[in-house]
Amino acid sequence: MLSKKWQKLLNTIDFAFQPIINIHNGEIYGVEALIRNYQKVNFSTINEIFDKAFIDGVLYQLDIALREKAINKFSKLPSNIILFYNLDNRIIFSKDFATEPTSKILQNHSLSQDNICFEISERETLNNPENISHLVHTYKNLDYKLAIDDFGTGIAGLKLLYYAEVDFLKIDRFFIQEIQKDSKKQLFLKNITNLAHLMGIKVIAEGIENKKEFELCKELNVDFIQGYLIQKPTLDIKEIKKNYNISFSNNKSKNFYSKYIEKITPINKNATLYELLNIFKQNDLDFIPVIDENNYFIGIIFEEDLKELLYSPYGLYLAQNKERKISKYIKSFNSIEISWSIEKLLESYSYLDKSINGVIITQGGKYIGFLNNHHIINFAYQKNLELAKSQNPLTKLPGNPQIEKFISNALKGEKSYYLIYFDIDNFKAFNDKYGFRKGDRVITLFSDILQKNLNYAFIGHIGGDDFFVGIKNLTFEKTFEIIKYIQEKFKKDVYEFYDKEDKEKGYIIAKDRNGELKKFDFLTVSAIILEIKKESSKENFDYSISSLKKISKQIDFPICVSLL
Question: Which intervals hold domain CBS (predicted)?
Fold first, then answer.
């Protein structure tokens, strides 16, 4: 029984809800419960409440009472969404931890385990991995969803991700704030999102405050978002909407995949074993997808694992025992989001379990259907064929068709871009003197420098000694700095391509375009930077590039810049 002090806290505080939405269509997925009004009972922070409760030995009892209060309020919202509830990891040290009453609280409000996700904070990691496993397995065994909160802020990081078999990864606001200006944050989010997806984990970006952050997260395949751009935490549940419109564009991949998806009817995880066996007996299936009450994909049941029951004369009779659940046969399985690009699908597929000869397709985590290997292999073949036709044979970089496609998208004005053209100065003279083989080595040298220093950008080879780079969502200062470094790096490295005699002279003698011998400086590289911040026509673009190329030939400074 909680003391009067803690009862007063419970009577005073309230829960605000902040929506978590599907980044691709704006549909609400869930709400996070956030404690409010704690200042009225002389607590300065939420952490202070739980620290004091831990010291008093009532942390778990208080937490259960808070859950009940949050669930009671949440129960007045539509039943097809999820409540994200923050756990204090120290509850496992409570002697009462083994008695888990949440399912009963949910039942009292006509809800189920499908309606709640417990958030484990990375800010409060437990030193012993066994403690983490104990906390996670306790709730996973009871069919609750789990999330790692504030990912990237604690010292445990990937270690916690390894031990905690969670459903969601919530990326801390630090990595989202002004991500459009920070290439390191973009690289972090991209790689963590890819890793999470390969582990079958959905990613939630926290603290989205503006459209640029939203667009970057969408581009990097984040699944769900929450933050002030969508809605501030609200005490009034009437303000929670079913859909939030933030200019959600239709994804072309969805239409592309849809016509190839097979509709294998899923089974609800609460179905009886008898129902499951009948489905396998009546259909020629190797597996059946499993969903929860809200149509979210949770795993697969293989026909092979049920052979003893399926082919036993008493199998169906034994399956009628209501105590025999299908949960023991469900195997977790990764899925592919319908909104993902072909490239993302093929990359993820290479790491996925191949035991079902295809992949499960979901939309915002909800089951859509099955895409078989035949179509995926065909996608890969078509993609490789397209790349092979376009790429430069020497550098293997994308060629002009893909460069044109990138420029066309950039000119639509949806994001800020820097389009950069590189031209190696005095290359013809070098090629004439040292030969095509050494000239090719110069080209591949510059190609390697670009790829090592601009691995987050689009890099194309126009032909000969001309290259193209497209950069999204980077500041001008950072773009300029990188280009300057590339120019200096090339100048330093290519110096070793000259023979001793030419190094001593500091120049080479070769024929100019008129066939006359003249002095040529050592190889350097010039750059034209075109900044695009608003929608522009192809005609304006072509004119600007043509003008800049003429100007760049007339000035000594190696970088020429213009705004389109």
Answer: 260-318
Q: Provide the β-strand partners of residue 417.
A: 472, 532
Decide the pairing of beta strands 224-225 and 14-22: antiparallel
Per-residue confidence (pLDDT) for residue 55, from 0 to 100: 94
CA distances in angstroms from 373 to 354, 365, 370, listed in the order given = 9, 21, 10
pLDDT value at residue 497: 96
Q: Which of 366, 377, 358 is closest to 337 using CA atoms?
A: 366
Q: Which two tokens stand for residue 459?
A: 């890099």
176 neighbors 169 (Cβ within 8 angstroms): no
Q: What pLDDT does residue 273 have?
A: 86
Distance between CA atoms of 18 and 33, rounded to whole angstroms?
7
The per-residue pLDDT for 123 is: 61
The whole-number pLDDT of residue 253 equals: 47
Tell me how far apart the alpha carbons of residues 343 and 471 are, in angstroms, rounded to a whole number: 19
The domains of the chain, with CATH numbers, are: 4-249 (3.20.20.450), 257-378 (3.10.580.10), 393-563 (3.30.70.270)
Do residues 237 and 271 lie in contact, with contact meaning Cβ atoms separated by under 8 Å?
A: no
Q: Which helix (H) or strand (E) holds 375?
A: helix 373-390
Cβ atoms of residues 420 and 483 within 8 Å? yes
- The residue ranges of DSSP E strands in 158-234, in sequence order, are 168-171, 202-205, 224-225
